[in-house]
UniProtKB/TrEMBL annotation, chain A:
<feature type="transmembrane region" description="Helical">
    <location>
        <begin position="888"/>
        <end position="906"/>
    </location>
</feature>
<feature type="transmembrane region" description="Helical">
    <location>
        <begin position="862"/>
        <end position="882"/>
    </location>
</feature>
<feature type="transmembrane region" description="Helical">
    <location>
        <begin position="679"/>
        <end position="702"/>
    </location>
</feature>
<feature type="transmembrane region" description="Helical">
    <location>
        <begin position="808"/>
        <end position="828"/>
    </location>
</feature>
<protein>
    <recommendedName>
        <fullName>ABC3 transporter permease protein domain-containing protein</fullName>
    </recommendedName>
</protein>
<keyword id="KW-0472">Membrane</keyword>
<feature type="transmembrane region" description="Helical">
    <location>
        <begin position="708"/>
        <end position="729"/>
    </location>
</feature>
<feature type="transmembrane region" description="Helical">
    <location>
        <begin position="635"/>
        <end position="658"/>
    </location>
</feature>
<keyword id="KW-0812">Transmembrane</keyword>
UniProtKB/TrEMBL annotation, chain B:
<keyword id="KW-0547">Nucleotide-binding</keyword>
<feature type="domain" description="ABC transporter">
    <location>
        <begin position="22"/>
        <end position="234"/>
    </location>
</feature>
<dbReference type="InterPro" id="IPR027417">
    <property type="entry name" value="P-loop_NTPase"/>
</dbReference>
<protein>
    <submittedName>
        <fullName>Lipoprotein-releasing system ATP-binding protein LolD</fullName>
    </submittedName>
</protein>
<dbReference type="InterPro" id="IPR003593">
    <property type="entry name" value="AAA+_ATPase"/>
</dbReference>
<dbReference type="InterPro" id="IPR003439">
    <property type="entry name" value="ABC_transporter-like_ATP-bd"/>
</dbReference>
<dbReference type="GO" id="GO:0005524">
    <property type="term" value="F:ATP binding"/>
</dbReference>
<keyword id="KW-0449">Lipoprotein</keyword>
<dbReference type="Pfam" id="PF00005">
    <property type="entry name" value="ABC_tran"/>
</dbReference>
């Protein structure tokens, strides 16, 4: 019993450590605009940015000025941005060899790392000298993780052949040019795609545009955000160094960098540090965008540069493939050249590109690297300025359903309407063409987010990329167990777990759609500062543009240690008229969300997706986990101790009968009753002294009040049972069992009747053993019920799971110890009568009862006792289970029955 | 140990006689001395018991009488030697076979006439009939046997309600219930007064008249005197 207390005490300490370590995240309080806090709900969705703002800069400053505030980091959804992704290109090797033009280029560009002229290889080409006819089929497919959607499949035909170097007479001399072979028609996809053209290394075929995709931009205060994120916020350093709003005039900055742009820096990216120490990265595409915007007249005197830190890569599953076939004049396939494909995510950056989206004709070699650093080409027209939308994508709406036993609540997301995607831009800025939109089949995506009305008119902004961030690394910084979403730029993936019919499926992570408004959205494409937000939305400093403020209280230690300061800060912020959510002590909880009206078939009928799982967070999880698991552990301990104490008392008292024989002998020796009792008591007190010694040792380790109390109770129970046993030691003379047996009593003619007669004759021991076995069954059932109930007690949060994984084993050990103790005590009680039984077995053996019959006798005895104990075991197990874990009552009853059966097996395995 | 000529091995020729219900050959019984010298209670002991005779094992307490009886009744195994029941060696029998044969052949009455608590004298007598489901069929015979030992009026009494001599007589009746061929009796008169002891001696002697062989261990001179043969155990 003391060991049980010791184990439970250790489990409690471990539980406390786990909860304290894992329940204080990056911030302690989430401040939202008044009325946006979802009062009464403790399970919070990760998307809390509405784009509608609601908190003013003045309120932010008031929060920061409150006592005990460590960090107050604002965050807002700035805008939805529609991007026309690059024109893809198909490059076919058609290298014309070293020539004067190349030499001139290397000299003009001052490229030092090119391969020396003498080492350039002979001309090479995948094309034939005479042009051949080809059919090129471009295809784009996107997947949401469950279904593939073909966005377009477009074919173009024409002839291509090896380029020739040809001299032309020009005024003042001759000019060497790379020209198409005679008779070549080239290959041209529908506008706005360009045609094919020959260069010194490749023939380039312009492919159909990729579809437009949407990204979101969020605004943060870089300094406060870095303070919030700690080491994980290093990616915001360039944004913090960006010039103030006064130094961001787009036309001035554009002119400055256009003037500084030299051919050698044309490639961008790696040369950023060479431009006046500015922290720009990937700047050259924006100079081109500046030029395009200027040509289109979209930039005005008020246009501002928007400093951005953009996300690396994309979770959008978009694969572009090109099939190349050689055909005859009639269009019939002559040969299959091959198919090449590329996924968007391989080199994609929102708002910028480090490389063009190129695919290479099968079989060819890329000779561009002969030019060294001059071989990296950025083709004009690849980078279209983004279209900044003032339709803000708000948070999804959910309807909460029934609560599960573990406290989780099923959610249903509300569809907001279909959004058409897979469109071409209305016109391309470079050529000012209006493409034929009919070449694309529109695709509908369901939006689960409402578009809100935007803010005031703003001049078209010009984005400049200052750096990149890894969305998954930010997500990791937001924590796992103590997950607290940062707001828009740490992705919260959703996984499909059940189909629409409720059948479990292998979990599949859903990918975001082109609209950026589906249920699964990736991290914001870019992060800017609040000056950037004002530039995009045309807001002033007085406007309430802040969606949320994440507050870290200036207090160390665990959530429990800092609870006083956190509560005080929360109360003070609430007085400012804002909604306050204390998130210290929160934990991640995977919410099950039913997703209706997810897809449309050809007829326009909508079908549901099924159920997805997404990480949300549960307020107050730490307190709930600690309380419920502590309760479960305490119940286990009480059951263990209660059962053991009861059985110990029963054993001690049941032993009295055996002791009476000794008492008779002692009485015959002249001992009086007082002396006999003293003698037995002294023996029992030796046991009590041993118990006291163990209690002192355990308490020295435990040092808890519980252990002390239980030690005292155990000692009291033992002493009470001892004194009771001594009091019952009245040295009776040999018993005369009443009147002679009635003549009508059936004769014993079987082991079963023999056993029944013996058990009836020895009612005292029979009762003690039956009660003991019943208590064993009840204890086993109740302990199993509590163990089965542990997952429910732990709740559905990640903290609960972690805590359970840490202390669940100890609790199981506690339960096993309880059952084992009860079993041992029951077996001990059962054996007090063993000497008498063995004497009987000797007699029966001498009368010719064989081993089989004696085994049948033992089984009959144990079976009758088990049958007597079963009702107590079942009623006890079910009764306790109904009190502590109602849903496990049936299994508790089964466990109780099994425990009795186990006792039966052990008893009948006893060998003489 | 000193054996009288009538019971020596030479007389029975060391050959299994199928007419002999019980025969012991070269029985040695040795107990582990608990780290000291082993305790030898019998060594190379031979005994042939004729039907209708009473053989007495005499000697003081601790001389090994009870050990010989339990070996003869197949309740324990000797350290060496063989036990034959009606010429069949117990070495070749399983526990179940020994139990079956014992039930049919041997009636064992231990010292003090141990009975089962909580059961009447009649039920105690009928216990050997339980394995063969002969309880009902043997009930009248049990009553007759209790009458025979003078307890016809006490058959419903339980052991605690019987005196030592009465319990001994019940035990003898119980040993005879299945038509026993050999009665093995351990100290039947040890704790009885002379009157009750003589009653027991009379009952045992009477059983021999029915062709039953009696092997009895005792230090009661009266009983030793009425035996047909005897072995004095040292």
């Amino acid at each position: 019993m003391l060991l049980s207390v010791f184990i439970q005490d250790r489990a409690q300490s471990s539980l406390g450590r786990v909860v304290d370590t894992n329940s204080r995240g990056l911030y302690d309080i989430l401040v939202l605009p008044a009325g946006k806090g979802g009062e009464g709900q403790t399970l919070k969705q990760p998307d809390y940015l509405s784009g509608a703002g609601g908190i003013t800069n003045e309120q932010l400053e008031e929060i920061r000025n409150l006592a005990g505030i460590g960090v107050a980091a604002p965050v807002s959804l700035v805008s939805k941005v529609v991007q026309d992704i690059e024109f893809p290109q198909l490059k076919a090797t058609d290298y014309v060899g070293y020539n004067e033009n190349i030499a001139t280029y290397l000299e003009q560009q001052n490229i030092k790392d090119a391969v020396p002229a003498s080492e350039w290889p002979e001309p090479d080409s995948v094309l034939s000298e005479e042009p051949k006819n080809y059919r090129i089929t471009a295809k784009a497919v996107t997947s949401d993780g469950v279904n593939d959607t073909v966005l377009f499949e477009t074919a173009a035909e024409g002839s291509l052949g090896q380029a020739k170097l040809k001299e032309f007479d020009v005024p003042g001399g001759k000019s060497l040019r790379t020209v198409a072979p005679e008779g070549e028609t080239g290959i041209k996809f529908p506008d706005p795609a360009g045609g094919s053209s020959h260069g010194d290394f490749d023939v380039t075929i312009a492919l159909p545009m990729l579809p437009q995709i949407s990204e979101t931009v969020v605004a943060v205060d870089p300094a406060a955000e870095q303070a919030l994120l700690g080491d994980a916020g290093g990616f915001l350093a360039p944004l913090a160094e960006a010039p103030g709003a006064a130094g961001r005039n787009a036309m001035e900055v554009g002119q400055e960098f256009s003037g500084k742009m030299t051919p050698g820096l044309f490639s961008g990216g790696t040369g950023s540090a060479e431009i006046d120490g500015h922290p720009f990265a990937f700047w050259s595409p924006f100079v081109m965008q500046y030029q395009s915007a200027m040509e289109a007249g979209s930039l005005t005197e008020d246009s501002q540069v928007i400093p951005l830190v953009v996300r690396s890569g994309t979770a959008l599953d978009l694969t572009y493939s090109v099939q190349i076939e050689e055909i005859d004049d009639a269009g019939n396939k002559v040969a299959d050249i091959g198919t090449v494909s590329k996924a968007l995510g391989e080199e994609y950056l929102p708002f910028a590109s480090t490389k063009p989206f190129q695919l290479r004709w099968p079989g060819g070699e890329d000779y561009n690297n002969l030019l060294g650093s001059g071989g990296v080409q950025v083709v004009a027209g690849l980078h279209q300025p983004a279209s900044w939308s003032t339709d803000f994508v708000s948070t999804p709406e959910y309807a909460a359903g029934a609560a599960n036993p573990d406290g989780s609540v099923e959610q249903t997301v509300t569809p907001q309407g279909w959004v058409q995607v897979n469109k071409l831009p209305e016109k391309t800025l470079q050529w000012q063409l209006e493409p034929d939109q009919s070449q694309r089949q529109p695709v509908n995506e369901q939006s689960y987010r409402t578009n809100l009305d935007g803010a005031g008119d703003a001049a078209a902004p010009l984005p400049f990329v200052y750096g990149t961030f890894d969305a998954n690394a930010v997500r990791d910084a937001a924590g796992d167990v103590n997950y607290l979403p940062l707001g828009g730029y740490d992705p919260t993936p959703v996984k499909l777990t059940q189909d629409a019919d409720g059948n479990a499926v292998e979990p599949v992570e859903l990918q975001p759609g082109l609209s950026g408004a589906g249920l699964s959205v990736q991290s914001a494409g870019a992060i800017t500062d609040y000056s950037g937000l004002a530039a995009v939305r045309g807001t002033s400093a007085e406007d309430a543009v802040i969606d949320a403020v994440r507050v870290k209280v200036d207090a160390g230690g665990s959530w429990a240690d800092a609870a006083g300061e956190i509560d005080a800060a929360a109360a003070a912020i609430e007085k400012l008229g804002l909604d306050v959510q204390v998130v210290a002590g929160s934990a991640r909880e995977d919410a099950s969300i039913y997703v209706p009206e997810y897809r449309q078939d050809a007829s326009g009928a909508a079908s549901d997706l099924g159920t997805v799982s997404q990480s949300w967070f549960r307020q107050g999880a730490a307190s709930a986990v600690q309380t419920s698991l502590s309760q479960a552990s305490s119940v286990l301990l009480m059951l263990t101790l209660g059962g053991a104490a009861l059985l110990t008392a029963a054993s001690t008292v049941a032993f009295t009968r055996a002791r009476r024989t000794e008492a008779v002998t002692l009485r015959a020796m002249g001992w009086n009753r007082t002396r006999i009792r003293s003698w037995f008591l002294s023996e029992l007190l030796v046991g009590a002294a041993g118990l006291l010694l163990v209690a002192i040792i355990v308490n020295a380790f435990s040092r808890s009040l519980t252990t002390l109390l239980v030690s005292a109770v155990v000692l009291v129970i033992y002493l009470a049972a001892s004194f009771t046993s001594a009091a019952l030691l009245k040295p009776h003379p040999p018993a005369i069992d009443g009147q002679p047996g009635a003549t009508g009593v059936p004769l014993v003619d079987s082991p079963l009747k023999f056993a029944a007669r013996q058990l009836r004759t020895n009612r005292f021991n029979t009762g003690a053993v039956a009660v003991g076995v019943g208590v064993l069954g009840a204890a086993a059932g109740a302990l199993v019920a509590v163990i089965l109930d542990l997952p429910r007690a732990a709740g559905s949060t990640a903290l609960g799971s972690l805590a359970l994984s840490q202390v669940g084993g100890v609790n199981v050990a506690l339960a096993v110890l309880g059952v084992a103790t009860a079993l041992v005590l029951t077996l001990i009680t059962s054996r007090f009568d063993l000497a008498r039984k063995r004497a009987q077995w000797d007699i029966l053996e001498a009368m010719g009862w064989g081993p089989g019959l004696l085994l049948a006798l033992r089984r009959s005895e144990a079976g009758i006792l088990a049958a007597m104990a079963l009702p107590l075991a079942i009623v006890g197990a079910v009764g306790v289970s109904l009190a502590v874990a109602p849903h496990a009552a049936f299994r508790a009853a089964i466990a109780g029955v099994l425990a009795v059966i186990l006792w039966f097996i052990l008893m009948t395995r006893t060998r003489k | 140990m000193i054996e009288e000529p009538q019971t020596r091995a030479e007389k029975i020729g060391r050959t299994a006689d199928h007419a002999m219900p019980l025969e012991l050959r070269g029985i040695t019984i040795r107990y582990d001395g608990g780290g000291g010298e082993p305790l030898v209670v019998a060594e190379d002991f031979d005994l042939g018991l004729e039907a209708g005779t009473m053989h007495c094992l005499a000697g003081r307490s601790g001389s090994g009488k009870t050990s010989i009886l339990t070996v003869a009744a197949g309740l324990t195994l000797p350290t060496s030697g063989e036990v034959f029941w009606q010429g069949d060696s117990l070495d070749a029998m399983s526990d179940d076979e020994i139990s079956d044969r014992r039930r049919a052949l041997i009636g064992y009455v231990d010292q003090g006439g141990a009975l089962i608590d909580g059961m009447s004298a009649l039920e105690n007598v009928l216990l050997p009939a339980v394995p063969d489901k002969q309880v009902e069929a043997r009930t009248e015979m049990a009553k007759d046997l209790l009458d025979l030992v003078g307890l016809g009026r006490r058959m419903r009494h339980r052991p605690a309600q019987l005196s030592g001599g009465e319990r001994q007589r019940v035990a003898i009746a119980r040993a005879l219930i299945l038509g026993t061929k050999v009665l093995v009796v351990d100290e039947p008169t040890a704790s009885l007064d002379r009157e009750h002891a003589n009653q027991i001696i009379g009952i045992l002697k009477d059983t021999t008249k029915d062709g039953i062989a009696v092997l009895v261990a005792t230090h009661d001179q009266e009983l030793i005197n009425v035996a047909d043969s005897r072995t004095l155990m040292n």
